[in-house]
Amino acid sequence: MNLAELHKVALAMVAPGKGILAADESTGTIKKRFEAIGVESTADTRRDYRELLFRSADAMRHHISGVILYDETIRQSAKDGTPLVKIIEQTGALPGIKVDKGTKPLPFSPGEVITEGLDGLRDRLIEYRNHGAKFAKWRAVIDIGAGIPSHDCVNANAQALARYAALSVEEGIVPIVEPEVLMDGDHDAERCYLVTEWLLKSVYEQLYYARVPLEGTVLKPNMVVSGKKCATRASVEEVAEKTLRVLKACVPVAVPGIAFLSGGQSDEEATAHLDAINRIGGVPWKLTFSYGRALQAAPQKAWAGRPENVGRAQMAFTHRARMNGLAALGQWKAELEKKAA
Ligand code: 13P
For residue 134, which of 169, 98, 173 has the smallest C-alpha distance? Predict the structure, then answer.
């Protein structure tokens, strides 16, 4: 492990005006996304779709620092035989890999899940490193509801995240530490704040016990938002203020950067929130995006599985990447969305 090298990679992942494209949907998740646009999910359609994203030269060169891949994708080649990893590298972006194996019900904790994938992880990290992965991702999922999250759920997930992060750093791969508080419930933003605070404090406690050097890590948290079914909506300013407040209370200064997940926010909401957060600023970390849905919903819709739509889909992706790149600098304006439309 070379910590100076890991720190350099972590800083590159959160370089000014750039963020991460989360294209690591599992086979089950991408099938759902494709169903929504009437596309059959096969190894070839998944390849074609992801290839069009990675070949969006403008977006990739100027606004995307890294791409999180799924196990299938890191092994795939483009139609012309070029490995997809190579296409990403040629744009200057870093290839990364999702290494968790998804969630399973947590025993004796109805409604709660634990992320699996620690068994054999060291060997998989070595294999992914040989495929070119410079960073990894592990997502812990915490739901808010009546009586949940439980201490067991927060603790078990924080411990798993720390074990994963320690193994990644040891193998020379920057871990994206992703503790996600879901926005599915009817809770308000204050409850989201309290659960996010509890989770982040637990995660950094476990990272400390696992001796993880934070300089070689990137945090991927949720923003502090109202639950989707909550009657009241926190404003953009309130989301930005609460998100910054919880990060300041919980995240050590040694962490080089924070790249938010979008978590089911609309494209424009995710951009507006990131922009408002960066306009307040005054924090020691770079604050950027690591969006899946908020970067891909528009290109997926524009593509709809048709080769003749590839150019339009690339334009849609480039637009979202540019908007989020501006938001990462606190320079986004709502008018820029209208102009593009
Ligand atoms: P969303 O931005 O769609 O939440 O996806 C990010 C991600 O990587 C989830 O693990």
Answer: 173
Structure tokens at 160: 């798993």
Q: How far away, in angstroms, is 139 Cα from ligand 1 center?
A: 9
With contact defined as beta carbons under 8 Å apart, do 143 and 149 qualify?
yes
Cis previous bond, 149, omega within 30: yes
Instruction: Give Cα separations from 311 to 63, 73, 79, 241, 339 (angstroms).
Output: 18, 21, 16, 38, 19
Q: Show the domains of the chain with their CATH numbers.
A: 3-340 (3.20.20.70)
Distance from residue 21's CA to the centre of ligand 1 (Å): 9
Q: Which pairing describes strands 135-142 and 64-69: parallel, antiparallel, or unpaired?
A: unpaired
Dist. CA 105 → ligand 1 center (Å)? 20
294 pocket-lining for ligand 1 (C-beta < 6 Å): yes
Ligand 1 atom 5: residue of nearest CA? 292
Q: Does residue 10 line the site of ligand 1, with CB under 6 A?
A: no
Distances (CA, A) of 308 to 35, 52, 193: 19, 12, 45
Active site residues: 178, 220
Give tens-digit pLDDT for 6-62: 999 999 999 999 999 999 999 999 999 999 999 999 999 999 999 999 999 999 999
